[in-house]
## 1
Amino acid sequence: MDLKLKIWRQKNASERGRFVNYKISNISPDSSFLEMLDVLNEELISFGEEPVVFDHDCREGICGTCGMYINGRPHGPDELITACQLHMRKFRDGETIVIEPWRARAFPVIKDLMVDRSAFDELMQDSGYVSVNTGNAPDANTIPVQKEQADLSMDAATCIGCGACVAACKNASAMLFVSAKVSHLALLPQGRVEAKKRAALMVAKMDALGFGNCTNTGACEAECPKGIKLTNIARLNREYYKASIF
Amino acid sequence: MTKLDSKIPEGPLDKKWSNYKANQNLVNPANKRKLDIIVVGTGLAGASAAASLAEMGFKVKSFCYQDSPRRAHSIAAQGGINAAKNYPNDGDSVYRLFYDTIKGGDYRSREANVYRLAEVSNQIIDQCVAQGVPFAREYGGTLANRSFGGALVSRTFYARGQTGQQLLLGAYQAQSRQIKQGNIEMYPRMEMMNLVIIDGKARGIIARDVITGELKRFSAHSVVLATGGYGNVFFLSTMAMGSNVSAAWQSYKKGAAFGNPCFVQIHPTCIPVHGEYQSKLTLMSESLRNDGRIWVPKHKEDAERIRKGEITAGDLPEEGRDYYLERRYPAFGNLVPRDVASRAAKERCDAGFGVGNTGLAVYLDFKDSIERLGKDTIEAKYGNLFQMYEKITDENPYETPMMIYPAIHYAMGGLWVDYELQTTIPGLFATGEANFSDHGANRLGASALMQGLADGYFVLPYTIQNYLAHEINTPRFSTDTPEFDAAEKETSEQLISLMNIKGTKSVDTFHKKLGKIMWEYVGMARNMEGLKTAIEEIRELRKDFYANLRIPGELNDLNPELQKATRLADFLELGELMAMDALNREESCGGHFREEYQTGEGEALRDDKQYNYVAAWTFSGEGKAPEMIREALVFEEIEVKQRNYK
Amino acid sequence: MSLAGIFLITFLLVHLGINLLVILNEDPMVFNRAAHFMGTNKVIKIFEIVLFGGFLLHIIYALILQVQNWLARPKRYHKMTRSDTSAFSRWMIHTALIVFAFLAIHLADFYFKAKFGDVGETSEEGVHDLASLIIDKFQMPGFVIFYVASFIFLGFHLIHGFQSAFKTLGLNNKTYTPVIQVLSILYTIIVVGGFTAIPIVIYFQ
């Protein structure tokens, strides 16, 4: 395949970036999107140019490190996958592919396509856990958990923290990310104890970090590589009201 | 010469750990606040250790090269975690888990360590449930179990196909809580470059800020390495792109012994390599072998035509297919252990029967199972795996057989540690996959997660105190010491010299070459001649690397090529040591298969008389041959036997 | 935001009910009396203040949230491919501006006139002839078109607003959400249909 790439290049956080056009040829349709970028980078290196910087690690869709806006969609034109699982056969020969970093105030660009998502870690540090020390756990089967609840909890817990929800949301809101964590823990008896406090703290932190507000548009759900449901946001809202009213 | 003292406690096997804990030194709460611990790596072993130590009151500094501690590669583990809970009431016990692990490791691990691992396995499950890990449940609300290879009982706890992710998030959350409370200072995107030793003790690290390129100094009373495995020495593996050996290797060069470097595990069911541009391999769960049948064409001409694309698998009649595992191992068939299945696939492909455009693949066929059980049943069991396969290969495994090939995915070898998980450098500890581990020469499925968390939650937080109890009078110290100066200078010079090569070839060019050498000669089947060739070729490649490497960009800037180059520089040295270790071990055991040492039927032939030991290698200086020290393995409980799967 | 929205949603129904009297009843006095009651009753007067409060709250919140949302993405994407989402939800602030403009004109035309202007009295004491005012206004085709168009935009606003309000209040699950979605469409059809029917019917009478 021969392709035209229009890639956002930005030297560092403070300098202004711009789009740079590249041409690349002989790409196998069986290669992954990131492997296509590897090929581009090898070419750039052979000319002595700096390769395009992008975040990536496991390359099997679970670590949540990779993330870029490909042709107007987070993780590109396929459903329920991350950028590293996107394959070139999803593109047409000769197509122009526009590649941009996540755009959000809370996710500033570090270089080229790499952004700083430490805001997600800060959110997690504000109560995104069960307060239990190592060693003081009762036997694992002491508290039975309804299978349905455990399954729902697992649905929410599959979030990989890639930031596609924020990237896709027209308001750059982190509601889906926060709600996935709040739901995961609120649905289990172990996490239920702190559920209200958790919702209140995480929502307040989310606002403080400069994420936008939820307008129930649903772009986050549509673009989430793990299929996290919008119903989690409603559950977060319920927990939040419980915390603020009762 | 370094002396190895494994510090195995006295007493009967099942009392050793309790005896140790009863008699060890502890640090009182007021003193804990005054002691700093550096933990490098935030996978299962690192995050759990950092969280547990911080909860106890120590001041922890935690490092990872990723942008967030949650991204460590433990997250990619699929299958599950073993524990001797015996919830299914099928006869499991601590002893049985211990026995299976020793036997699975082909009798090349330490009895006392493995017994302790089995002992604490149950606590891990309790701890994870309390943290809110959403394990699979039965309708009655109790925890569900499934069975895994190498065991006669169901003892594997799981969270769908994402057990590693859920356990890691549990540990990450525990760590996040301690960061919030100020007990952990978190340093993401920070890569350990060097170890600082003062008066013979590990006292700190030099780390490179990945964003700015700046070298930074960190001091502590003790350093813990939880930096994972070194599978990426093969270039293509199921490891994450950033997984590397550098922290462990730099420590090796500072005096830590490296145990059994040649023991790596090759997983039989990965999606095959499909081209030169490929960057990584994806694992397909071992569970697929329950219902899939593995075969290659019986005639070479057919295999050739398939490779050329003239015919497809479906065109071959039943009598044209060779179900080689069923043929060779009628008793276990497609369910032979990982090392056996991997070697058999390689043997067929090397003989010219491989399929796929590269000829390096075999079929995993579900046709018979679909006919027998129906497509719906197969979909319910393996739907997500089939979907993943289709996303990657664009082939529908319900209609055409899957193609699979073995790939590197775990390193049993690693830094040598004693019973306390301490390396041969006082104050330097290694946990999880980074240490030479409890898995001997072969790891059983669902045991990596168990070991990582056992080390981090329940072993290291005790054993490290036995060391730190002697450090309570050491005040926090500054990094303005000649030792830190020297370590930083050393690292800085290394980086500058790499930048200054200004050759013509990229890091990946060399890494791919190293991978080819390793895979060819130090991979699934090894022999004396090949290993000698490997050592020669790696040395040549290293020369080429230092003469012709090109790193664009700046030294003091975000520079992924420089990061890759420093990691590869260490892999280029490790590769040689692996080959030397494999050359030394003139027997076949577990993942280490020497072609010269096999039974008449082509099975691994152990030599317990001569090689019943851990090979711990120590660095003797650049350009000098490393020294090998033996730690003899003593089996008091278990009778050592030959494995047989016919 | 959502509470104020739901409050306004309820108000619209009451408003519609009274307005429909103009076309549903032959005798204009029925509507005039109802309007008079709404304009003079003490309880209603209090509710009037609450209503204005509701509007104000809804608008102020909307402005604050919208500004926050714009600030949350200082640099926009070069290329956007629409996700699988409802278009109405993406255009809330725009439909809101149109509705707001309409509201201003609407208040000037009817509400302030009825309150402070010189609307002719009817035979009954104190009861103003609002019915005639309305019927007069809706003889102008431009006005009718503007009125109808505005309500269509209000409809766009409501079709997302109605169900979104419930989601924000935490009501989103497999059982209720489909019901709420049907309700939101029904409600929008009734409100838009009802309000636009009035000028159209009057114009063609």
## 2
Amino acid sequence: MLFNLNFMKPTNLIFLSNVIISFSFFSCNQSAEKSENGNNKDIEKQLQEKLINARKGDVIEIPEGTFNFTRSLSMDAVPFVTIRGASQTKTILSFKGQTEGAEGIKVTNSNDFTIENLSIQDTKGDGIKIQDCKNVVVRKLTVAWTGGAKAENGSYGIYPVTCKNVLIEKCEAIAASDAGIYVGQSENIIVRNNAAHENVAGIEIENCAFADVYDNKSYNNSGGIFIFDLPELPKKNGHHIRVFNNLVQNNNHPNFAPAGNIVALVPAGTGTFVMSTREVDVFKNEISGHITTSVAVVSFLLTQKPYKDSLYNPFSSGVFIHDNKIIQPPAMADTTRPLGKLTAMLFKGNTPQIIYDGFLDPAFVEKSGKTSEAGKLCIRNNGEIKFANINAPSNFKNIKTDLKEHDCERGELSGVEL
Amino acid sequence: MKVQKSRVKAQGTEGISSFNKFFPYHFYFLSITFFLFPFTFSCNFPENVNLNIDSPSFTNLSEYHFFTGEIKNLNPNVKVLPYDLINPLFSDYAEKIRFVWMPENTSALYNDSNVFEFPLGTVLIKNFYFPNDFRKISSTPHSSGEDSVLRSGEAKIIETRLLIKRKNGWDALAYIWNEDQTDALLEVAGGEKKIIFIDKSGNKIDFDYSIPNKNQCKSCHTNKGQFQPIGPKAKNLNKIFSFKEGGENQLAKWKEVGYLKGFPNTGNVPKLPKWNDSTTGTLEQRALAYLEANCAHCHSPEGPAATSGLFLSSIENNSSHLGICKSPVAAGKGTGGFLYDIVPGKPDESILFYRIISTDPGVMMPELGRKLAHQEGVDLVRQWITSLKGNCFADIRNHASP
């Protein structure tokens, strides 16, 4: 029941009996009130011990109740482990009193890892960090900072990094001071059916290749869905990202990210933000109610941040935005961020729904001066929208608003299969 | 009863250790077997280090027989060799006494840049203790592993960490000492201990010292996904150590006792400057050596913080990877509102500096293993950042397309 047969070896019986004892102990503590009483330290220790002693194939079940932790929980190098709670509302791991560790749960070098049906609350740093793992499933996990949006909240809610084959589904991320759901430097990713709200970025895919982001609801964040690529990281030059069938709504929450973080640069009221990534399809989304802009396609160069990375490509090329339902009533952009100030200055209260900064990868400029098909920004069939190429390389002179130059299409990107 | 037993052992030990000075080990065993057999019974011959890498770890530290006599004095058993590092990791001002032990007829393989390749069965033993009053200890408190401050009872050993090289890799174990200092118990889940000491300036320091759990050990000791020791590299061991027999270079000693193969024994062995000794290197060299000891186990291209792109090693020559004018990644509130890891000349606007002085678990660096800021180390990093010239102004024209 708790462990597979592989684990039922005589040598493990002593440990197993401990687990069963701890399990019955857990079940006596089903209400939050009870678990506050004295024995909480034991529960923390028991769960950490289970993770330390975990073996291939273990299912570590956490019963109903609110359990308080002072240290990060961690697991390293054990394959095929599942951590499972009773449900997102019934099993709550609270890190409100955390005194040690930069995340709530950290899982490293553990392939075929699954975590599901529980909540992680109020961690001092990230909610859950999953690093260097293959075949990761995060399902029905809530990560929240219960005091609401605050700069002192942890940066990421759900945070897989340098992983391969990642599925994040039916999760909820609330009030992260950077991104609620963040996938970094990874490959083969599906993020679907999640809800992200009151974060700075609802969902962020950074320095990744091959990602499908669909059927998510991202609302009341500062920005809805971000596709980023940054220099000077081991994994870079992100590409092949599809963002579709998402509801991206009213992401106008004041940006509360601490300065220095890349998301701190993004003005509140940004629906979808694509930066320095190749082959990005944004289609069939509903993007509505944003005060700054609905879709922005930019280069890292626009941030004016220095970098020394000759292998980094700062351009967004081959981006295709089509068949989206975009609703953006006239509004004043968020002027607390330089990019919002710029937008407000250029367009007053009448910002285009799609903004492109005009940085073009010289590799896609043909001898004739034309942009080759593969490098083009294509925009088609998004209803009655306005567009602007703000021509940042020419210091915002000669802003182009004609969509004709971008009326093109390219073959659809293939979907991600896990 | 236990105490009595160890006293008996202590008497036996002294005889043996003086005997050792004159005879190599194999000769010693031979002579015991053939000539001194009856004598060994009468003088309570001490047991050798007791380790079988195929057996589970002992519950009590004493069961390994790393130490003879009263265990709290950390008097090393035969072939348990004390060593020291030029630049240790800061651990809340804990003093550390280290030993290495290898099975008979095995040795580590020398290389000049990475941690040595250790043989199966190697044990690295690291004891963490706090003197009651730092003003009363000399600057080099442990010269032979058998420490007078421990003997005097003016200090408490908190934990002993073992790294044991087993067939499937290094095993990390933390033993927590009891109040009576008569033994230490294995604790995979780590723990916390209230520590009170008087620091060098006479201030009373009172805090909860944290003993890592097994997985926390891994979070620092992982390199290329494999568990690795951190300290025992040639460049960090290359120093004179006061052994009982007298001062000697540690690497030469390791070779002499048979613990090191392939050691060139020439002047070309790398050596780190000592972070707090200005005669050993420039400010920059010492600051980087300090950062290497305290950060590079994670912040290296093969370490767990590779994802940050910040590589704090003394041999890193890309200024961005060293953090100079580098934007942070995934730092969250760890930025402190600052834009770059290091701003030349401006430690108080540098994220790196902000994070090494912090004790907030969501901000501080290293993420684990300290509850206090290391004032002296922080001062060195401050001086180094202050000495750097330049600014972080971006010239986007270099990158812009036509």
